[in-house]
């Protein structure tokens, strides 16, 4: 399907947006919180370049990856579980203070949201970020008013790449599979959209675990959300 097909024929429709790596470059704050946690545990900092590649499956997986020092982590032993629980609490505490401090909206985001709202499009956030951090970040970035629904990684029993969060948001916004688009930066977003049966757009500037997004199966791939218009 062409970009024009996705973004011209069907309005008013529903647009679902991933948050981290799609609307907001939040990796600097996530990295600062991960490094604060690692320091508190007496470990070496991970640094922003590593953390950027570990974002996308929610806070628990991010902390697991940081403790392992790599994207792949082994299921924990009971001893590791105690460490993990402490580490997760340290991360939450640090991120609560850092969330939004160094984060920036990507180029083209405000333009895109403004124009879609003009079209009568209803918009939602579907992120794996824990729910408690979503509204504060949207408010800091000044974009909260565009969104009629926001689903976090712990809002429902499952998160992306499960299709349920997308289907839930789409239904709540009155969308159907023929009138809804998912926009994201990672394989989790595109896989969730494919499983939900809705078209998707991948952005090239996000995280996606450091891998290219061109072969994920998105219906369109863009360098800026302004290209959608
Ligand atoms: O892993 C995260 O917290 C980031 O989530 P998102 O890319 O789904 O917004
Ligand atoms: Mg993302």
From TrEMBL:
> Which Gene Ontology molecular-function terms are recorded?
metal ion binding; phosphoglycolate phosphatase activity
Q: Which CDD domains match?
A: HAD_PGPase
Q: What class of enzyme is it?
A: hydrolase
Question: Under the cellular component aspect of Gene Ontology, which terms does the record hold?
Answer: cytosol
Active site: residue positions = 18
Pfam families hit by this protein: Hydrolase
Requisite cofactors: Mg(2+)
Catalytic activity reads: 2-phosphoglycolate + H2O = glycolate + phosphate
Report the EC code(s) recorded for this entry.
3.1.3.18
Pathway(s) per entry: Organic acid metabolism; glycolate biosynthesis; glycolate from 2-phosphoglycolate: step 1/1
What residues does Mg(2+) bind to? 18, 20, 185
Tell me, what does this protein do in biology?
A: Specifically catalyzes the dephosphorylation of 2-phosphoglycolate. Is involved in the dissimilation of the intracellular 2-phosphoglycolate formed during the DNA repair of 3'-phosphoglycolate ends, a major class of DNA lesions induced by oxidative stress.
Full protein name: Phosphoglycolate phosphatase
